[in-house]
Amino acid sequence: MFYHGIKRKYVFRHFPILSPRRSVSIKNWMQLQDGQHLIEQFGLEPIHLLEDGADYPRDRCITECLAFGDTVFVFPTLPDPLWQLSQREIGIPILDLRLASGIYTIGECEPLQALFGGIPVTAIRTPEGEEPFAHSANRL
Can you give the pLDDT of all 140 residues of the chain as single tens digits? Predict the structure, then answer.
């Protein structure tokens, strides 16, 4: 499975397709520099996703993706072309959010459920300041 973390406001702003080209105007200087490095390396700035594995479980992927936003999209497969950016990180040119098999979010599920219809949306509730899966009771 592949996981992408994003702030909910960007989901609604860019629905249904995520593309780094569409968000250039809202990036800070450091994000623009990182993007430029990726453009030089791959010819474009890819969307980043984490890939789970036996040594890198779903809960860890979701927790790490939540560092980038309050919502995590889960995909069973990704379209070609894709690039291996690091041991666990995959890059693709664009991401169609409608192809997700699940969504995890901190906060209200209803707005995402309304937008994504049949895709299951799971609320992650955490005690203030804790990681979502810090205690077994909070695990999905």
Answer: 999 999 999 999 999 999 875 454 455 545 555 555 555 555 566 889 999 999 999 999 999 999 999 999 999 999 999 989 889 999 999 999 999 999 999 989 999 999 999 999 999 976 565 556 544 334 45
DSSP annotation of 56 = B
> Is the separation of the CB atoms in 102 and 115 below 8 Å?
no
| DSSP assigned state of 46 | P
On whether the pTM is more than 0.85, the answer is no
Cα–Cα distance between 138 and 43 in angstroms, integer? 41
Longest Cα pair distance anywhere in the chain, in angstroms?
45
The whole-angstrom separation of Cα 129 and Cα 138 is 13
